[in-house]
Write a structure and sequence with these properties.
alpha/beta, Rossmann fold, 11 helices, 239 residues
């Protein structure tokens, strides 16, 4: 955010309901409500020609927002979209989505979260999220600690429900409704959202999407390789 704010852009980061400093609501931890919350925010701030950048689950949130509201109250408010390591079109393995991950994977996330939430929020960043489990990786204890901090700020019900929201929501029709210029950015060593079932398929469903694949980059490449990602984002934003 400081990269773009220092270049004259107005940068807004919202805390999804149940996350960060937002209210820890019991209900509404689903993609439809996330998209409705985002609409409420953009209307309240009267944002026009906004560029929506969504990472991981946030990429699904952007896709559902455009698919659900882009032809209605959000018309004219959306200029471009950027989906970074994003979960669409569907993470769950189904008959129609054989490249997805089995339900057992996400059941395992839920079990680990309920068994020892604090350790779960330590293991994910220490391992696949930043690619710190790869040989020769430069591990940042600070990043791991900060990811843990953010996880522990999240309401446990919101975190639990969000696993279903990001893994079982089918965004196929939302992606087909996106008409604004869209940049799809994905690392080919993303261990959290594998590129084969996400970025590669996503870019085929969004009309005229631009796909950039980053060799060896992890899921959290916007943090670990921020110089490259920021530069490419800037080129797309200013094009």
């Amino acid at each position: 955010m400081i990269f773009f704010a220092s270049r004259g852009f107005r940068c807004i980061a919202h805390d999804r309901r149940g996350h960060g400093r937002s209210t820890q609501t019991w209900d509404g931890n689903d993609m439809d409500t996330y998209a409705d919350d985002l609409l409420a925010l953009t209307v309240a701030l009267d944002l026009r020609n906004a560029i929506h950048v969504g990472h991981s689950t946030g990429g699904g949130e952007v896709a559902r927002y455009i698919g659900r509201h882009g032809a209605g109250r959000a018309r004219g408010r959306i200029a471009k979209a950027v989906l970074v390591g994003a979960v669409p079109p569907l993470m769950l393995k189904t008959d129609g989505n054989p490249g997805g991950l089995p339900l057992e994977v996400f059941d395992g996330f839920r079990t680990a979260l309920l068994a020892d939430r604090a350790q779960f929020f330590r293991d994910v960043p220490a391992g696949p999220f930043y690619g710190f489990n790869r040989p020769g990786a430069k591990v940042s204890p600070g990043l791991i600690d900060n990811w843990w901090r953010q996880g522990m700020m999240c309401g446990v019900k919101a975190a639990y429900d969000c696993i279903k929201a990001f893994s079982e929501t089918d965004f196929t029709e939302d992606l087909k409704r996106i008409e604004v210029p869209t940049l799809v950015m994905h690392g080919d060593d993303d261990q959290v959202v594998p590129i084969g079932a996400s970025g590669l398929r996503l870019s085929q469903l969004v009309r005229n999407a631009q796909l950039t694949v980053y060799k060896g980059f992890p899921h959290a490449m916007a943090t670990t390789q921020h110089d490259r990602i920021n530069a490419d984002l800037l080129s797309f934003v200013t094009a």
